[in-house]
Automatic annotation (TrEMBL):
Its EC number is 5.1.1.1. Residues 235-364 form the Alanine racemase C-terminal domain. It comes from the Bacteria. This is Alanine racemase. The modification N6-(pyridoxal phosphate)lysine is found at residue 35. Keywords: Isomerase, Pyridoxal phosphate. GO terms for biological process: D-alanine biosynthetic process. It comes from Halomonas huangheensis. Catalyzes the interconversion of L-alanine and D-alanine. May also act on other amino acids.
């Protein structure tokens, strides 16, 4: 019998969330972001589920694109960080990829090598994130250079990334947005600006293309939820089982360092899941879990292969009881990965992408795909 920890991936929910992104931006095309192995969900199965819906996929690096092409995915793919060396341009050409250009050396490399077919290019502008991209005042000259090389470049777009689209105070977002709109108007450039928070909460910033990412996997990226984000459905349900139960007296320590002391006579359940599986070791006592669909919480530090939960108020729970670390229970309850992330002082992105390869993924059939 296999270890009971499994990441269940609901591909129907993935397709639902993608359709929601499209519904929110009916005048945009949406490139489904599959970077970091589809945020830990498995890029190839997610791409196969979405390929009949999405006109393009986006990944961070060429290795991720190669994996999709080798799996038979023919949908257009854009490299959000572009190339990391000029040698990669041969693969970009061979695999018919699009790419971001965010720095001078990438620009010179792209214009120095004539591809078999012109490469779709997304010119990255730094609108205030100060991470990747050309300064807005330099973008116009670079845009004109790219336009003057039709044998090298095609389907040219202006792209940027908002630093604060998820925040409730959006003065900085509005300044970024206004500057980008003015630049696009001068260049007559089609725009790709909207990440997940922007798709959900800022319709004024929807461009010709949007880039929904974490929202596709059911996580709400907004500081304060909105009606649209409450319609997201969780895609990953991380489920395990109780593998042992301990009956303890009051004042007994549980786990490494004895951080948790039983407040009275207690039942403690041992769960097959730990930081060696990617569960966050910083989870505090009180971090919620579901046992047979009922809410309880972690009691004691997370170990490499196990964690412990309080079963005192759940007398029916026993060895073999289902434990949901986040996602949907077979018994009907639901626990948001966003809530778990708050207890771990992190974000859902970290939890989802952190589920390690030793945790098997099981996929439903995407009936809606």
């Amino acid at each position: 019998m296999a270890r009971p920890l499994v990441a269940h991936i609901d591909l129907d929910a993935l397709c639902h969330n993608y359709r929601l992104a499209c519904e929110l931006a009916p005048n945009s095309r949406s490139a489904a972001v599959l970077k970091a192995d589809a945020y830990g969900h498995g890029a190839v199965p997610c791409a196969r589920a979405l390929q009949a819906l999405a006109p393009a996929f986006a990944v961070a690096a060429i290795e991720e694109a190669v994996k999709l092409r080798e799996a038979g995915i023919e949908t257009p793919i854009v490299l959000l960080e572009g190339i990391f060396s000029a040698d990669e341009l041969a693969l970009v050409d061979e695999l018919k990829l699009g790419m971001a250009i965010h720095s001078q050396w990438q620009l010179e490399a792209a214009l120095a090598r004539r591809p078999r077919c012109p490469i779709p290019v997304w010119l990255k502008v730094d609108s205030g994130m100060h991470r990747l991209g050309f300064a807005p005042q330099d973008a116009e000259a670079i845009w004109k250079r790219l336009l003057s090389a039709p044998s090298h470049v095609t389907d040219l777009h202006l792209m940027s990334h908002f630093a604060t689209a998820d925040h409730t105070d959006n003065d900085y977002f509005r300044r970024q947005h206004d500057e980008l709109l003015a630049l696009a108007a001068r260049l007559e450039a089609p725009l790709c600006l909207a990440n997940s928070p922007t798709v959900l909460a800022h319709p004024e910033a929807h461009g010709e293309w949007n880039r929904p990412g974490v929202m596709l996997y059911g996580s709400d990226p907004l500081e304060m939820s909105c009606d649209a984000s409450r319609r997201l459905r969780p895609v990953m349900s991380l489920r395990s089982e109780i593998i042992a139960v301990r009956e303890l007296e009051s004042g007994e320590p549980v786990g490494y360092g004895g951080r948790y002391l039983t407040p009275g006579r207690s039942r403690i359940g041992v769960v097959a899941c730990g930081y060696g599986d990617g569960y966050d070791r910083h989870a505090v006592d009180g971090t919620p879990v579901l046992v047979d669909g009922q809410r309880t919480s972690i009691a004691g530090k997370v170990s490499m292969d196990m964690l412990t939960v309080d079963l005192t108020h759940l007398p029916e729970a026993d060895i073999g009881s289902e434990v949901v670390l986040w996602g949907i229970s077979r018994f009907g309850g639901e626990l948001s990965v966003d809530e778990v992330a708050q207890y771990c002082s992190t974000i859902s992105y970290t939890l989802l992408t952190g589920v390690l390869p030793r945790v098997p993924r099981r996929y439903n059939t995407a009936q809606s795909a």
